[in-house]
Here is the input.
Amino acid sequence: MTTNDLPITQANQKVRPHPTQNEALLFEKSSPGKRAYKLPPLDVPAVDAKAMLGAAHRDTPGLLPEISEIEIIRHFTRLSTWNYAIDLGMYPLGSCTMKYNPRVNEFVSRIEGLAEAHPYRPESHAQGILEIIDLLQRCLLEITGMDAITLQPAAGAHGEFTGILLTRAWHESQGNPRGKILIPDSAHGTNPATAAICGYAVENIKSNSDGGIDLDALARQVDSETAALMLTNPSTLGVFESQIHKIADILHAKGALLYMDGANMNALVGKVRPGDFGVDVMHLNLHKTFSTPHGGGGPGSGPVACKAFLEPFLPTPVLVRKKGAKGRGAREAGGEGIESGALHWDYNRPHSVGRVRAFYGNTGMFIRALAYILANGPDGLRQTTEDAVLNANYIRSKLEDLYDLPYSTPSMHEAVFSDKRQLVHGVKTGDIAKRLIDYGFHPYTVSFPLIVHGALMIEPTESESLEELNLFIGAMRSIAREAEETPDLVKSAPHSTRVSRLDEVQAARQPVLRWRPAK
Amino acid sequence: MRYLPKSPAERRQMLAEIGAGSIDDLFASIPAEYRLSRDLDLPRQQAESEIVEYFRAAGAKNFTSYASFLGAGAYRHYRPVIIDSLVQRGEFLTSYTPYQAEISQGTLQAIFEFQTMIAELSGMDVANASMYDGSTAVAEAAMMAVRVTGRRQAAAARSVHPEHREVLATYARHQGLPIALAGYDPKTGRADLAALEAAVTKETAAVLVQSPNFFGVIEDIPAIAQIAHAKGALLIVSITEAVSLGLVRPPVEADIVAMEAQSFGVALTYGGPYCGVIAAKEQYVRQMPGRLAGQTIDANGNRGFVLTLATREQHIRREKATSNICTNQALVALMATIFMAVYGKEGMRELAEHNLAKAEYAAKMLAAQPGAKLRFAGAPRFHEFVLQTEEAPAAWSERLLENKIVGGIDLSRWYPEMQNCTLWCATEVVTREQIDTAASILAAKPVEA
Amino acid sequence: MSYPIHYRYTREHEWISVDDAIGTVGITDYAQGSLGDIVYVDLPRSGDAVTAGAVFGSVESVKAVSDLFSPVSGKVTAVNEELKNAPDKINEDPHGTWIIKVDLSNPAELDSLLDAGAYEAFIAEETGH
Here is the structure.
């Protein structure tokens, strides 16, 4: 029965405008003969692919859709409208740093000479892009106070992997790679996963009553088998480890290193430098602190900065500027025409941990991050940090009368509450998060860090105006009242979305991970 | 500062409401001795016009408008303009990982479509939502095979991309995973099957080959699968040129496919960001790394999508996770999804045919020049080939550059035995005129000054 | 739900019932309740050796994984294949749904396990009631 044949009843008088209805999958829109492409005429002789490839030939590339250009535009445009985004409003996902992604970043990353540069083009023809990489490296070293850097890691966790490999290589050079990495119980899950894939045992450190590192416990746990402590600073509670120098001293006294997870570096830029407070090696997340877009979950970029003693171990290749070539003319014999003073990749790194990725890293993200640094300058970066911290503290002060604050230590860039006071009405952090969607906000980070039972981890970033902050605070206060008066309303949220709560249990029990044609 | 939506008065008001005397009060937990009392030594704040000018100048320094025969794991294909129109929509660009499914259906459905099309093309049952790139996908695939088999050795062909092998070696070193290398047949450029067979033992978790391999040659996947499976090892096939799947039989005998999908509408941008993927047989899905989108229903019975099987991942399993991967390449995977939709079933095949024809013509023209010959001429290949010249590549490549052509890449940097051998790639964007010009310059021996 | 008195229990919330030196192992009602909807059970293979106090598999909900600890040492004689497609059986009937059967190599290990009363006291302490 088609829609036209339906009898007019109460049930179908109220229709939904069609773009908000379920958008079919691409495959369901396919019909043989529809096209969204046109190739130019072939200017070389055509070949008999079947004859050339023999047994390696395939007749058809499978069930790809056949569809026209307008349908593709509408399809993805409709899908996009079902996403929440920073461009639509506040996205206070703690620890993820959902800040404004400047559009000039996107514009410059698409400049032809940059976007079309092949990674193996001769270095003499890549000097423009190498200058960008070099300037970004120097900026990041100044911001972190470290001595050497690699931009090769593709994301934060990949940076952790690289940083722990550096740690391991250095310990090996000292005669013993050591066997364990210490990780606070408040840490992001990537930390223990990283330590494990680098061949280390993980030893947890319990947080003290302030949510920080217990110095006495640390001193007891650090021994000659400890390779490093992986520390997020500010911590996942948004708290700066004010004893950081003592932590570094305890580690260094036993020959262990201090690794800093730089996920929260946006609370420190321009105010304090990890290199100055005893950090030996750290990673940065360009998609957090330096505004490169999150893009629905990537790409990221996770540069690793370290002290000079770790420099020999950096992944291959390392960018260096040619020196001492003066007087030999512009070109070198047999080389690729590298000019004096030119930048080039040094592959001769006998102590290197090796490669962690093909080519040189996510260059497109380097361009965006540098554009962001240039747009800010030293004064703008400091103001950005101050505003991020100001916003978090403002939210904290406006909500702490209604939401439980498990740690009263001063907050930096994020405020972590718990659902303790709502739980008595049966309302959990996940419910409050879903209800926040109805108020037009993306939820905060739910149930993390693990040391806070029922955590609400709120990171507004610097990108929110006072007006937007007040709207968010108003929504959170309303939800607190609803949790008391109409808890079921909160527990069954969201009520305003295109789909209601999705059945994750069914998705996991009987996984359907791809479309298949109906039989 | 133009990105900050606050006036000085608003900042003062907020401080007053918090009860802070000054902004420095909020940084009091940082010991004073470490607090920075100076400006960072960085370039001054720039206007947008200055930023654009800086990057334009840098781009111009890179010599645009050269014809290029470079491939070797990064390929220049035409990028339909709708890719950038769509991925620059703020709802895709400025959203995060779709943890809150109700307000992330756009990203989730697009991932589901990506997984479906990659599975169709690669001949596997399931594909994940993407990995960092092809090289890390190879390393992660090897670790996955270790988890599946419980064995702790691997065998790899030397015809796998050298940088991918380097990345694998970095990951494998600390997993106690020795890798036995098998050479290539000097006639065909294919993996030496006898050497590969000798490298596989009862302790081998995985056999790794690439097809088309680093020399552009298509491997004999059924034969290699037999070698791997005879000893209970899994077969991992790496695919660095995704467009080849329009015409080349997918490695259906493989257990895991590690792929680089950069060719599907992703700009070269000097090496990244690209789009790795892992695809596999269904029975291995719980050992797969990375995110997966799955179909389900909502409370009203409507179809919807969620991230699923998350218990494999680091945020739940921590040190026991299948991988430490967190971020994937969602926006780049979206580019690839749109690219696959644009070309579709017929276009993907036609595009691959154009690549095959261009490379065949280029190989014929270049190899016909005096002192030049084609290596591995007997084996089937896609759009890359190895050219051996009497003249050193350093000499003729300079001549090509002077004529605004970037020639093939010198293979001796990775394969010392391949003196004067270069790897050339001709995709659909290379013109007959460029090929003819390159051939004539190659033929023109220099006049000694 | 009551805890059968002829079972023995671990502090990691597995139960075992022994008949003729063959132990039948499952997880307790308390365990399934705190885990929520079980979506997957990672099972050992028949013939595998298990050790008292060591991990032999895991159960998963949507957002959590819980290791399974063997109450006893011995050899796995059977695994409940039905759980591969119907893991929710554990939620429905935790004390009637077995996961593995073990041929005990050291029946004396049973003496260190909790009886029903001790186990109930133990979980009351864990939940702070």
